[in-house]
Design brief:
By secondary structure, this protein is mainly alpha-helical. Helices cover 30% and strands 4% of the residues.
């Protein structure tokens, strides 16, 4: 946000101030529309609520959630990008598949040299150890898909 509006007490052009204990705007037949050339700002000492029977849509070139002030008073806007859940789910699944394939290759195709320099052979004890790893990886895949993806916040 490059433009920050002046406080009402230092703004030197025409302005209307409505001050009351409570304000209610209601459109019985159609809509309430707010429009501004630069910024529409909302401020409260309490919480801010939007209630909708249907969708809540935010349409913007860039959506920034959160900001903080540095010690010198500068404002830092949100820096962490949001994650696209379905794409991350697909990536994690492919990564888990690759690790499972690697595990299976190590289980059956890798040998080591013993102290005499002879290659070791297949060890059937590896089946249990590697199957435990594969099971853990599949549990992680299911856990991510069911626990980490929001059902209420959706991104484009």
């Amino acid at each position: 946000m490059n433009f920050i509006p002046k406080d009402t007490n230092i703004y030197d052009d025409n302005q209307i101030i409505i001050n009351s204990d409570r304000l209610i705007f209601n459109a019985k037949q159609d809509s309430i529309l707010f429009s501004s050339n630069k910024v529409i700002g909302f401020n409260t000492n309490g919480s801010f609520h939007f209630d909708s029977e249907k969708n809540f849509i935010v349409n913007s070139n860039k959506i920034i959630l959160g900001l903080k002030n540095t010690a010198d008073g500068a404002i830092i806007y949100g820096q962490e990008p949001a994650i696209l859940g379905h794409q991350l789910d697909e990536f994690i699944s492919e990564l888990i598949d690759a690790v499972i394939h690697l595990t299976q290759d190590v289980e059956t195709k890798v040998s080591f040299l013993d102290s005499s320099g002879n290659p070791t052979g297949y060890n059937s004890d590896n089946i249990i150890a590697f199957q435990t790893t594969v099971d853990m990886l599949n549990d992680l895949r299911i856990s991510f898909a069911s626990k980490c993806k929001s059902q209420t916040v959706l991104l484009k």
